[in-house]
């Protein structure tokens, strides 16, 4: 049922051909599902994170979830602007998302950061591929929307990964010694 709905098209005066719009709407519905899924998973981390980094991670995850909530609306409204049907319920998102379910057995801050970083990387890949797909289909506006989201998602992946990287990483020419958390703690 969800598959049919995700490519449903209503008549529109918009100047993009119907066969092009069907392809874009289908892709946008996949993105809508993944965005809703990622937003609720980020909220899950916001509520359930524990440990010494609790407060800053609790706040960071909320900030990221707010951004994703905006993207949910932007993707859904691009679908309807193209004459499509936005598949936006939680059940539809669960059925259509490309992301794995959030682990329920983690507590520590860095475990949550790792789980989110893995999901943000998969989502970032999907969004970057969609820039090219929609550009090739001749829809510069949808490609622009994907580009905007892509830039922020890359930035958020950096924010997450920065928690996981050593305090001092090896430079490209190898002159700087990597200082791991363990080495710092041993001092
Ligand atoms: Fe909250």
TrEMBL record:
<dbReference type="InterPro" id="IPR002177">
    <property type="entry name" value="DPS_DNA-bd"/>
</dbReference>
<dbReference type="InterPro" id="IPR009078">
    <property type="entry name" value="Ferritin-like_SF"/>
</dbReference>
<dbReference type="GO" id="GO:0016722">
    <property type="term" value="F:oxidoreductase activity, acting on metal ions"/>
</dbReference>
<feature type="domain" description="Ferritin/DPS">
    <location>
        <begin position="26"/>
        <end position="165"/>
    </location>
</feature>
<protein>
    <submittedName>
        <fullName>Ferritin Dps family protein</fullName>
    </submittedName>
</protein>
<dbReference type="Pfam" id="PF00210">
    <property type="entry name" value="Ferritin"/>
</dbReference>
<dbReference type="InterPro" id="IPR012347">
    <property type="entry name" value="Ferritin-like"/>
</dbReference>
<dbReference type="GO" id="GO:0008199">
    <property type="term" value="F:ferric iron binding"/>
</dbReference>
<comment type="similarity">
    <text>Belongs to the Dps family.</text>
</comment>
<dbReference type="InterPro" id="IPR008331">
    <property type="entry name" value="Ferritin_DPS_dom"/>
</dbReference>
<dbReference type="InterPro" id="IPR023188">
    <property type="entry name" value="DPS_DNA-bd_CS"/>
</dbReference>
């Amino acid at each position: 049922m969800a598959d049919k709905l995700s490519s449903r098209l209503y008549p529109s005066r918009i100047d993009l051909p119907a066969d092009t719009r069907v392809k874009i709407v289908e892709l946008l519905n996949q993105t809508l599902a993944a965005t809703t899924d990622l937003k609720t998973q980020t909220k899950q981390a916001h509520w359930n994170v524990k440990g010494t980094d609790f407060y800053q991670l609790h706040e960071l995850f909320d900030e990221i979830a707010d951004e994703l909530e905006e993207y949910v609306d932007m993707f859904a409204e691009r679908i309807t602007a193209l004459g499509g049907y936005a598949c936006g319920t939680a059940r539809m998102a669960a059925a259509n998302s490309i992301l794995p379910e959030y682990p329920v057995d983690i507590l520590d801050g860095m475990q949550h950061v790792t789980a989110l970083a893995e999901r943000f990387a998969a989502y970032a890949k999907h969004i970057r591929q969609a820039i090219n797909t929609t550009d090739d289909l001749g829809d510069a506006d949808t490609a622009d929307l994907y580009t905007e989201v892509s830039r922020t998602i890359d930035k958020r992946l950096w924010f997450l990964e920065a928690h996981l990287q050593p305090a001092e990483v090896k430079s490209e020419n190898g002159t700087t010694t990597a200082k791991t958390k363990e080495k710092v703690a041993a001092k």
